[in-house]
Design brief:
With 208 residues, the chain is mostly helical. It has helices at residues 5-28, 33-42, 62-71, 78-98, 101-121, 126-138, 153-156, 159-181, 188-191, 193-207.
């Protein structure tokens, strides 16, 4: 798999898209369905021919590209700053997971087991999200590093919303794994920030 800066930007957009869906669910009790489908499906693309195969097409990453551009821009809004924090936490959590190959194997095996549920119900079905949420709870949530999701209690206390948030966090980790595989490192989020934003803006311009 070739690792260009564009490929890294696509994987980074996958992280930001997952984080955006988490924020939407926590603050509004719902989220955009097309990006959600792309994000959940990315978990089951385990043998992609190239980076874009993980997400299907560029349109499926549009929400992530827009969010990346805003959050990593010069003056992000408060909601985008929150999404940036989630994204950075996902990268940090994946770095811990990278040192736990047994846990990575466990996550991979359980995602394969969940594949049948996706094929039967579709990626956005509550049963699928509950299944993926249980994977996150049993593995990544056991780390000392926690991703604290901020939102409105009336939304966070709804079981379906909590499951969707955890499923999206798991998908965000999948994109963070991809980003690492493509050579992405945390320092790039600071020192190559403008380049990633420029690439994201260029892709969005071509999509319009």
């Amino acid at each position: 798999m070739s690792a260009s800066l564009r490929d890294q930007t696509l994987a980074l957009a996958g992280i930001f898209q997952a984080a955006s869906l988490v924020h939407q669910t926590a603050t509004k009790g719902q989220c955009l369905q097309d990006p959600l489908e792309t994000t959940i499906r990315s978990l089951f693309e385990t043998d992609p021919g190239n980076t874009l195969d993980v997400y299907g097409d560029l349109y499926g990453l549009r929400e992530g590209l827009k969010t990346l551009s805003r959050a990593m821009g010069q003056q992000p809004a408060s909601q985008d700053a929150q999404i940036l924090r989630y994204s950075l936490s996902l990268v940090q959590l994946e770095a811990r997971l990278h040192k736990q190959p047994d846990m990575m194997d466990t996550i991979g095996e359980r995602i394969e087991q969940a594949r049948r549920t996706v094929e039967h119900f579709g990626p956005t079905h509550p049963n699928v999200q509950r299944n993926l949420a249980s994977i996150y709870q049993d593995t990544l949530s056991t780390f000392r590093i926690k991703i604290n999701v901020n939102g409105h209690r009336q939304y966070l206390e709804i079981e379906e919303n909590a499951a969707r948030i955890r499923a999206c966090l798991l998908a965000g980790i999948r994109s963070a794994v991809l980003w690492r595989q493509l050579g992405g490192r945390r320092w790039q989020l600071l020192f190559r920030r403008k380049r990633h934003v420029a690439i994201a803006d260029g892709i969005l311009h071509d999509l319009d």
